[in-house]
From TrEMBL:
Name of the featured protein: LYR motif containing 5b
Domain Complex 1 LYR protein: 8-59
GO biological process: negative regulation of oxidative phosphorylation; respiratory electron transport chain
Source organism: Acanthochromis polyacanthus
Record-level GO cellular component terms: mitochondrion
CDD domains: Complex1_LYR_ETFRF1_LYRM5
Family membership: Belongs to the complex I LYR family.
Amino acid sequence: MANPLRSEVVRLYKNLLYLGREYPKGADYFRDRLRAAFTKNKSVQDPEQIKALIARGEFVARELEALYYLRKYRAMKKRYYED
């Protein structure tokens, strides 16, 4: 029987992989770290623990989005305002 949380984990992985394209250290670095993190937790079977790991992954996704918005904001500010 397949785990009902599998689709949510796959969705999270794909979302993080998409967000990692613009990572400051490079997409390859991010992809390797992401793959290692998911592989490390591959054997987790407890649904509560899986939900906690999904919540942590969603937190990382929000932090990445904030990082990108901040970088874009700083670029715009630098372009239009003199410090």
